[in-house]
Task: inverse folding
């Protein structure tokens, strides 16, 4: 079981949660309920919301400022937020901001950081010593390379092969960490006869599945962009697990924006001009095949997937 | 007729175009042909390409670095670029960069500058004096407010009303400019008995249809985003005119990316989950009406528009 | 006197301020005290803080996460924040976010928007009708063009010239607005025999000193960058007036960061290699003149200004 | 010796360099000379310029557009570029763009990517297999942790300790890579009885000193920001080695901007208000000590360092 925080951290979180003070700002009661609490992700990771600004009402307020009397025709907030999402009027969503504390393996952090429109403060292994914590997949996620799809996973490995992979991941990580500690030669048990390697150098011996931590702050528009890409079926399982945990926090925080996101992005589809033309023929009753569609195999398959739902 | 540049500028452009030098960089012959030449837009504006970097081959090269052997299955460049566009793999398009010199009315510049992912150097009316040049719409663009759509235009005004509007726009602009010049009290004809108002203050008397100029540099991914929003039927005509002129330069520069953009963005459609569900029922032969669709009127109308093509 | 808000707005602000709810987030009591209240700027403008996230403690928390045990040597928060500011460790400051509602003339808005690292929702004159409100300078700000400095102002105009400028600014603005209203032909007093020009077109008749409004959200690092540039003596008076009003809100919100900003940016100076060399010679007791300094006149003058304090 | 590219790559580079075509764009002959050629960095890394746009003349052109007649008083290009740099007028520098191909260890890539204002396409270990290449420091860079400075290095390790660290880094990397290959179970020598782990999972066994590659594109203003931070004495040696190699390409490309950068950033200093006050007292002939300076020890030491040059 993932017990993501230490006893010290649990005490700190309890202390953070114990203090309530009055504010004149917008308050999201459902997010207050979750504030500071870690949500376990993977075997030793977590996300937790540590601050936020605005909620659905901030989106509506910004849109009504921008579009003024023009928004009167969209009478309710849900309709207005759906309209903004459909027409990619992104600036009202930027008025909401959220800050997470995340613990994640470095290979996941490397994918994550490619999203440039966020603010980040990461635990620095130049200044500090990383803990002995590594990600090792659950057996059902220990997948073979997909034969058909270069970016996907196939079936899970089994038996001896699975056992060997898991043992090797664990053993190599432990060995690398033992040597990291020996290179550092710091703290209790340090050898006074050796000087110890600089932290910024010793870390290079650690594997990509070692855990790191960061504070990550982003506005809701860019968070939706992140969640659409990283919560997608084509994303690697390990980062998707984080996206899914974060998506639940968005549902608590800004439920109307969440609904619009699910309706328009997660559940919707973008069709090309050629795919739209095929859909029109199908609706007119024509029996269209891959051969008569005029689409490439890949584009045809993507249309089938969209229509299958 | 729009003669967008002065004689001096025409001479400078001819001089720029006369020099050719060897380079080892990627060269786009079709864009070289257009380089520096102003393309008229509106009554006195223009765009012209003054520099560029990369073309379709830079997109393909970047994608093949990222996806490595995984891209071998997409054999030709057009297929690969279409795939990247469909799946919003935007970073390869960011490897191309283009720089425009643009002359445009200030109210258009105010919409334009909302796109934050570009580099801009604008002619400064703090330091320099703006020319006596104003945008006045062609009669067929002198539109009434749309009754049904707050953000659209209705039919063109006619007769006396049209004449009065055009006369007033011209007259108010001329008066404002006369007073701007008198406030500045600079150059030939200046009154030595007066000191003249600071340029940074005098400019506030000018109307929003006065022309300004800037250099504007952007990567191809963000340019497509700009062109999708500003080339859309919902955009104001005056900025759309610029988007359309720029779109032609993209076709010359990166024809495969241009085709993918037209196929996927301009000619395609994003359907919501609810709209997709209706499409499935229609393809299955069901006669779906607004009433049985479960969609709001607005979402239903947008689906009809997408299916009408 | 600037009474920046209407009676309706004053009632809305009172209502916003009346509600207090409990939160577990960081609370800045001094900023809560000011929340929603408009601070007058120029003759009819204002700024008001409408939301915020974090304060000094969020900066410290982010820095201690990043630098871990390395920050123990900087024991107090003020010292740590000063260290971060001096060494341009900007990411901890990005963990604080603030949202303003601003009413400002369009020529000021055009300078302001050049800062691209903020979120903006502006009142749209495509969708809505702008109010009859214009900026007209106070007599002591009605400055002549500086003779020596292209970007500065000289002495204030006086007597007849000042009167004529103020009268003309007012009269041209009123005329332009009268015609704007007549072109729109909406609301009470509209002529049913005319259709009225589209709002998105009619606005082009308005001058650059008409007031607009927006919501503007930015993180503290980028706000400091904005305030350093726009609060500088070289900035135009009209935008500096906004920067100064905002600076006071930062002092209330994050006093340690404010102090570090004043000490390091506003009160400090950047010296070039050549200027540093001159300073070293001066400290060694040498009498250095412009002639023996090896500096250009401009760089020499800037050094004198920095040393004069 | 670092032979950074394979024979195949060398042939490709020769082919790229062999083609020259005419262009009307700005051409930097000194950068053309270096174009595509890898410059070795660390033991197996490199940088090479693969494209560029603009040079010093583009900066000057943009500044003269912005400041118009106001720039006439700064007559020569070097003086104008120095002025822009000193006064942080950054937009003209943004008109130049450069694209590098970089091969670098992952722990360096993690520091590098924190600069968000660039475009990146990295070799993907989800899609492709990483090569067996690791960074191992030269003996003179195998430094002990600094005692006084958490972020610096002390003296190099020596003798048995140095040997043990180098051996361990090499051995752990080789073991990790052997197991990576065995987990993948692809290509020649693959065991047909096993399926092989997905690439996106197997990579997590690799250490942080494994080499990766990317295309990285950035404008000159943001490149200078990167080079100021990563070329600083406080930066980790391994990333500084890249910054220094890139700095030489900037000198070839935009020599006036390079000189201004060295004069103003690399060789200059930012003084706080308190430091400036001490400098004034010193110039006035006062003997100021740490005790009478009113500065903290850290700020005093930084002033001494700035004055020592």
Result:
């Amino acid at each position: 079981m993932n017990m993501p925080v230490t006893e010290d951290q649990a005490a700190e979180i309890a202390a953070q949660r114990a203090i309530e003070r009055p504010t004149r700002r917008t308050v999201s009661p459902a997010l207050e309920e979750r504030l500071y609490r870690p949500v376990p992700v993977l075997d030793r990771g977590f996300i937790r919301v540590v601050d936020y600004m605005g909620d659905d009402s901030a989106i509506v307020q910004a849109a009504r400022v921008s579009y003024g009397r023009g928004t009167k025709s969209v009478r309710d907030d849900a309709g207005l937020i759906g309209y903004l999402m459909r027409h990619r009027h992104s600036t009202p969503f930027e008025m909401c901001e959220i800050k997470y504390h995340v613990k994640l393996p470095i290979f996941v952090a490397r994918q994550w950081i490619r999203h440039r429109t966020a603010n980040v403060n990461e635990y620095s292994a130049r200044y500090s010593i990383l803990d002995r914590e590594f990600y090792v997949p659950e057996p059902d996620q220990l997948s073979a390379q997909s034969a058909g799809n270069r970016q996907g996973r196939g079936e899970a490995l089994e038996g001896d092969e699975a056992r060997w992979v898991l043992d090797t991941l664990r053993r190599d990580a432990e060995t690398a960490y033992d040597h990291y500690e020996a290179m550092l030669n710091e703290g209790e048990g340090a050898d006074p006869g050796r000087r110890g390697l600089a932290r910024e150098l010793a870390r290079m011996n650690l594997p990509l599945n070692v855990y790191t931590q960061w504070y990550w702050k982003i506005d809701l528009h860019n968070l939706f962009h992140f969640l659409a890409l990283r919560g997608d079926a084509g994303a690697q399982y390990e980062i998707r697990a984080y996206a899914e945990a974060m998506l639940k926090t968005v549902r608590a925080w800004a439920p109307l924006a969440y609904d619009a996101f699910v309706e328009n992005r997660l559940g919707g589809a973008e069709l090309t001009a050629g795919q739209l033309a095929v859909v029109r023929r199908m609706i007119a009753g024509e029996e269209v095949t891959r051969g008569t569609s005029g689409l490439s195999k890949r584009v045809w398959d993507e249309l089938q997937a969209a229509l299958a739902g």
